[in-house]
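Section 3.1: Structural characterization of target chains.
Under the original work plan, the team committed to producing a structural model for every single-chain target entering the pipeline before any wet-lab resources were allocated. The record below documents one such target. The sequence was received from the expression subgroup and is listed exactly as submitted; it comprises 617 residues.
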Amino acid sequence: MAKGAKRWVVRCLVGLPLLCAILLLALAVFPWGWMKAPIERHLSDRIGKPVTIGAMAREDSLSFHPVVTLRDLRVPQPGWVRPTLPDLARIGEIRAGFSVWGLLTGGPVLERLEARRARLQFYRDAQGRENWSGERSKGSDRRGGHPALHSLIVSNSRIAYRDDKRGRSVDAALTVDQHGLRLSGKGDVRGHPVTVTATGGPILDSRPGQRWPFDAAITGDAVGFTLKGTMDGPLDIGHLRGEATAHGTDLALLDAIIEAGLPGTQPVRLTARVTRDRPDWIVEGLKGTIGRSDIAGHATIRKRDGRTRIDGALSADRFDFDDLASNAGKAKAAAKRARLGPRLIPDTAIDLATVDHTDGKLDLQVRQLLWPGPSPFRSLTGTISLEHSRLSVEPLTLGLTRGTLSGRIGVDQRDGGPLLDIAMTMRGARLLDFFPDARIDGALVGRVAIKGRGKTIRQALGTSTGTIALVARDGRIPDRTAALMGQDVGRGLTLSKRKEAVLRCIITRLDVRDGIARPGPVLIDTSRAQTQASGTIRLSDERLALALSGVPKQDSLLRLKGSVPVGGTIKTPDIQLPRDARSAKGIIRMIGDAIGGQKQPTVGDADCDALARTAMR
């Protein structure tokens, strides 16, 4: 190597460390007070309004962890915020210690902070815009790091918060000193007054890795929430674990605090152990009540790529579906029933638009279903799966007084409006459990396979196509009822009320197309008579347009001619007896026909086995 080249290498070897030392020294002594104007410009550009700092100066002279003092900081509200609100921030004095290495590497920057005479006004509008943050980044649901702040002092300061999206607000005094954090103030949740308090351990020279205790509470008669536990570090709300309690006059009111998209219900009380590892939540040991129902379970909530996934399990010893409606919801439903009359098909919403970014799997178990009156449905087990706007409850089993109703229910909203798909099979049931007042019994099986579009179950069935089948066999029926169903008026009026006839079979198959159900067939066969139904049932409003034709199996003294029209609805049928059965003249005519020897046809036994196979195919 030439002598010139060697000298150049030596100079580089000596000069590079010297240059690095000079740069490090420049960083250590950099006059950060010169950054006042650039900081003002940066903050002003971010919110679109002029941010001002009265004075800014560096306190120390040589350090890679400098301390800077700012006085009379004013941060106005962004331009979209209503002009009646105070400034976003007015702070008399700030002493901030930060890491130069954090600035250079993109790591945690702020290490120490002292604030005096601060007034902060946070606001979220009805559309969800927040005055304390810019547009949410697409990666906002990624796992966050731990803050580097290990010393905080706040005195003579207040924090106000107003949220028009959730209907909540608070105005509280905040103090942080060597004794710890203390926050106390008043607010409201959807118009219901609450008291807000929070306490935490000292944030003064706290050691890295030391868990930080906290206790927060929102207290009110109508709604409340408490969370007590520890964070991985001071104010590290992204990494915590603790015990939570909650109560509310309904779950929707409580949801204004916890923001989980919960519906209105009867009064609720809950307790749970919670862990947060941003952006995930783990809820364990969940216990509580909703109305007269009890619930228990666990869940893990994960957020990835703009989607939320919930996996877990819920169980209940006693559960009433009516508890999932608030008093306002019940009143609305009652008003609708008064206007439309009683309905068998529920008007439950199945629109998945509000959960189009939610997926998950939830196991359900209800040991005892509660109802306002008698019901054959006793228990429930199932698994709810939701994947990209496709919901299924499969397997689903409803325990009956005797027997089960099992299968699946699905809602697919990937292509247009909700498509309801029901495929259920009944086994081992008894007819008496469904209609105890009728005193008709028999072994009961059934099958439902039906699809339709609509935003509620009622709307979907009103457009549906498929089949509904029920078969009852080898039972009993009151003798009078069996005779009258065969239009045998004489025996229907004279037979003993205590005597029973044999129920050979009830065959019900409804072929549904575009929401119109047609018997195919509907037949009741007893030891006294046969009865068949023809006509239609409109599922959209449950309107009946049926005709019943009964034929006895024995000669009868008084026979009702023709068919019996049935109108009204499924819950309130209107059986329209022919004129002959409602007048003395008609009765006399039937007697005359019998005396005159006019013989009426009779019928034999139906082939129940073949009909049952056809109905259940």
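The first helix runs from residue 3 to 29.
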